[in-house]
Write a structure and sequence with these properties.
The structure is a homotetramer of 216-residue chains.
Chain A (H helix, E strand, L loop, with lengths): L5 H28 L5 E6 L6 H4 L7 E6 L15 H12 L4 E7 L3 H6 L12 H6 L3 H8 L6 H20 L3 H8 L4 E7 L6 E4 L6 E2 L7
Helix pairs in contact in A: 6-7
Enzyme class (chains A, B, C, D): lyase
Keywords (chains A, B, C, D): Lyase, Metal-binding, Zinc
InterPro entries (chains A, B, C, D): Beta_CA_cladeB, Carbonic_anhydrase, Carbonic_anhydrase_CS, Carbonic_anhydrase_sf
C-alpha cells in the first residue's frame, strides 16, 4: 500500500524544526483567537506562483483561494455551488477582510488554453473548457490580434483577465457596497515567474507597472 | 486612490532579496521548461494552513487548489463550471501529476459552518451555504452526536470530510483509472494549526495518525 | 508445588536496593502516621496505564482504585457490595481526600468490548458484560456513528466514558456537597499509551486538551 | 475554575523526560500489539502499596485491580455488576494470564475497619460496611482473640483475608479448571509498609515467610 510522500514528510520536518519552532506562540494564538487575515488573494494553482512565498507572508495573514488562471467569476446566485464565490463571501462577510488582491502570473497554462482555438477537452467532462469559457469573449478578441506575437497575446490576456476578474468582483453587492464605503480595497498584480518581477495594477488606468521597491 | 498594501510590497521585497535571489536559477528554469509539480494539494483558504509553508515546498513542487474547507466535489459533468474539478482535470490530465493530497486542518470555519444548524446565510447569494451543503448528509449525522463535545464533533467532521473528498476524487474516471494502474496515489492529511502537528491518513483504516518524524 | 514468580522477586529486590533504600524514612513515617494521599485516582487495570508510573508518584501520594475501563458507577445504596463506591467513600470520608482524578487511556479493552455488538460472554458469569453495561446507552449511540472509523469511535467512547464517570461521581451526596463547598476537586485525564501523551479534561467544555508541559 | 493538580503535571513531566523517553519503543510496541501482562495482581488502594513500585514492574507487565483491602469476592453470577470479578474474568479468559497474586499489606485501613465492632457507616450508603462484610465471619472470630494485641489481630486478619481471597478465586470455574491443568498459578504475598519486607505465602501451609532475596 502506498505511503505518504517522503518529500512532504521531510518538508514538514523542516517546517517544524524551523519556522514552526520560531513562530510557535503565533500559531497557538491564531488557533485560540481565530484568523484575522488582512488580504484575500485570488491566485492561480500554478506551482510557481504561491502568494505566501512571493509576499513572504506568515500564518494568519493571507486568506487564499486558488483556482486555474486565478479567475473570479461574476455574481450568480443561482443555487448551484460556486467555490470561488463562496470563498469571497466568507472572506468579506465573515472575516471582514479589508483587501482583495487578484494575482495573475506569466506563462499561465489556463490563459494559454483560453487562447488556443484548437484546444481539446482534457477529459469527457471538459471541466477546464467550461471553467476557462468565463474568459471566452475576451479570449476570442485577443486571438484575432495577429500583429502581436503569441507571447504578447499571452501576457495581454493575463492582464485583461485580471481586470476582468476585478470587474466581476464588483458585481457582488457586498463587495460594491463595502468598496464604495471605503471599507474594502481591490488590487491587481501580475507576477513574472521568470524574473521574479511583480507588476502592480494602477487603479485609474488599469495599467500594470513596477512599484518602487528596493530589491537588491 | 488607494495604494497597493505596504505589507505586501515589503514582503515581496524580502522575497526578492532572500528566496528569489537564492533560487533565481530555478525560477528561470521553471519558466522555460514549464512546471512539473509532484503533488496536487487540495487545501483550505485558511490563512493558517498554507501547504507551501507546512511542507516547506519551493517553486515548482506543488500545484495547489484552495477553497473553503478543502472540499473535492463529486464528478458532475453537467456543463456548469466547476473550478475545483477543472483544477483536478488540469493536474491529472495535463500535468500528469502522480500524487493528490487532500489536506484539512483544525478549527476550520467552513466545517464549523456545516455543523451549525442555526447558520444564517452570509449574503443573499448564500454561496457558503450552497458550497458547504456538499457535506450536508454527513454533517447532519455528526450533529446528532450529542455525547461528544462541540470540539470533538468539529475534529470528527474535519476528518470525515477528508475521507469524503477522497471518495469523491475516485468518482472521476481519470482518477480511478490512473489509481488502479498505479500511476496516481491519493493521500489525506489533517494539520493541527495550534500544535503544528500533521496527522496522516492511513489508507486502509482511514484513521489519522502521526507519522514517525523527528521534529525536535 | 509452584514457586513465587521469579520476575516479581527480582523486581522486589531492585525495589529494595533502590527506591526503598532511598525512601526508607518516608516508608517508616507513612507507616506510623498513616496515609494522607492527595489524590484518589480511578484508573484502569491495564498494564500500560499505572498512575504511579505516569505521574511519577511515590508512596503515600495516590489512593488508587483500578477496575476494567476505569468506570465510576452511579450512586446505588442498595445494600449490595460495590467495591469502587466503597473505595470512593473511604477516600472522601475517611481520608478526606481533596482531589479525584478519573483517568482513562487509549486502546482500552473494556471500552472496545462496550463497542462490540458481537461481543460474547467470556464466561457463563459474563461479569465483563455486566460491568461494561454501565456504558450501554452511550455505547449504543456511538456504535451508530458509521462515518467515524473504529479507532475514532474507540477514542470518542473512552472520553465520553470519563465524562460519564465524572457525572456519576456527582451522584454521590458526599462528593457533591464537598465539591460545592470547594473542598473537593474532580479532574479527568486520558493517557495515550502509544505516544505517552496526557490529555487533560477542560472542566468547562469537557474537551480533552494537552497541557503546556515541557517534555523534551 | 480549578486547574489540573500541579503535582500531577510535574510528575508527568518527569515521567516523560525520564522513563517514557527510555522506554518509548516499548510503549509504542505495547500499543500496537496489545498487552500481555504476566500477572494479575489483586492489591489494595492504599497509597503505600502500589504493586508496580514494590515489584519494580514496567508497562505491560502487571494487570492490576485495586480495591479496599485487596478482597476477591466469591463467584456470584447473579446478574449484578461485580467489578473485581469482571477484572478477573478479563485477565483469565481474554488476556490468558498465567499468574494471579493476591497482595495484602500491613496497617490496612479496610482490615482495621473489619475488626472494629464499633465502626460506624462513613456515609448513609455504607459502601465500606457492605464491602468489608465479605470478611465478616472471619473478622468476628478474630475479634474474639482477646489474648492477641490489636496489632497482632490486625496482621492475623490481613493474612487470613489473603487466604480467604485465594479460596474465593478457586470458586470461579475458569480459575479452578485452569489451575488444575497447570495453566494458572495462584500466589499470595503480604507487604510490610514500614520495613519494606515482602512476605510470600507458602502454598502448602498458607504460612507467610520471607523469601531468600538479596536486598543489600
Amino acid at each position: 500500500m502506498s505511503k505518504f510522500p517522503e518529500r512532504l514528510l521531510a518538508g514538514y520536518q523542516t517546517f517544524m524544526t524551523g519556522r514552526y519552532t520560531a513562530e510557535r506562540a503565533r500559531y497557538r494564538q491564531l488557533a485560540e483567537t481565530g484568523q484575522e487575515p488582512h488580504t484575500l488573494v485570488i491566485a492561480c494553482c500554478d506551482s510557481r506562483a504561491a502568494p505566501e512565498t512571493i509576499f513572504d507572508c506568515g500564518p494568519g495573514e493571507l486568506f487564499v483561494v486558488r483556482n486555474v488562471a486565478n479567475l473570479m467569476p461574476p455574481y450568480e446566485p443561482d443555487g448551484n455551488y460556486h467555490s470561488t464565490s463562496a470563498a469571497l463571501e466568507f472572506a468579506v462577510q465573515a472575516l471582514k477582510i479589508r483587501n482583495i488582491l487578484v494575482m495573475g502570473h506569466g506563462r499561465c497554462g489556463g490563459i494559454a488554453a483560453s487562447l488556443d482555438p484548437a484546444a481539446k477537452p482534457l477529459s469527457p467532462g471538459d471541466f477546464i473548457g467550461q471553467w476557462i469559457s468565463l474568459l471566452k469573449p475576451a479570449a476570442e478578441k485577443i486571438q484575432e490580434s495577429s500583429l502581436m506575437t503569441g507571447s504578447e497575446r499571452q501576457t495581454a490576456m493575463e492582464r485583461i483577465s485580471i481586470r476582468n476578474s476585478i470587474s466581476n468582483l464588483r458585481t457582488f453587492p457586498c463587495v460594491k457596497i463595502l468598496e464604495d464605503k471605503g471599507k474594502l480595497e481591490i488590487h491587481g498584480a501580475w507576477f513574472d515567474i521568470s524574473s521574479g518581477e511583480l507588476w502592480v495594477m494602477d487603479k485609474d488606468s488599469g495599467d500594470f507597472v513596477r512599484p518602487e521597491v528596493e530589491v537588491a
